[in-house]
Amino acid sequence: LRPPTVIGQFHTLFFGSVRTFFLGVLGFAAYGNEVLHFSCDPGKTEVNLFCYNQFRPITPQVFCVLQLVIVLVPGAFFHLYAACRSIRQEDNLQKSFYTGFYIFSFSRIILEAVAFRLQIQLFGFKVNAIYTCDVGALEEKFNITRCMVPEHFEKTIFRIAMYTFTVITVVLCVAEIFKISCRRLGFLKTQ
């Protein structure tokens, strides 16, 4: 069962293909072996791992995959419901209940906004080349150590691209709700 509007179909294509491809291929290229190249104290593996875990409590790849899965859930419920009820494509926007249920599946806008806010809190917009780590919990001689972050510029570009994808997804969802609402109110003719 495909989405009832052209905007929804484009959203599905964009969300399912472009965003997932970008995350999988380029995300792996930017973050794939980051822990191996993150270096604070070349002689002490435990300091490197401790600081890396402090620097990156969750990798952006894992966070983005979780975001994709969570955002897909409301739409999946609608499509599962529609498939179980054998709702035809044309009926999606003709009956109020189906339209309401379809619009409810747009709770993904809220989920995207929450994920966007969390991404900014966790990762920020820019990856700095040097990370200052507090190693006081390891009972080291010095409490602060500086760590080198590998490929920080690539990671910054990846983050900005993921934020851009989130904004595009939200804009597409809002545009689809607007189009559906205009159709239901009679401003646009049903195709």
TrEMBL record:
Record bears the keyword Membrane: yes
Compartments, as annotated in UniProt: Cell membrane
Membrane topology label: Multi-pass membrane protein
Keyword Cell membrane in record: yes
GO CC, one annotated term: connexin complex
Segments crossing the lipid bilayer: 12-31, 58-84, 96-116, 160-178
Gene Ontology biological process terms in this record: cell-cell signaling
Pfam families the record matches: Connexin (PF00029)
Taxonomy, superkingdom: Eukaryota
Any one Gene Ontology molecular-function term assigned to this protein's record: gap junction channel activity
UniProt keywords, alphabetically: Cell membrane, Membrane, Transmembrane, Transmembrane helix
Domain Connexin cysteine-rich: 111-180
InterPro entries referenced in this protein's UniProt entry, alphabetically: Connexin, Connexin_CCC, Connexin_N, Connexin_N_sf
Name recorded for this polypeptide: CXE1 protein
Protein source organism: Calonectris borealis
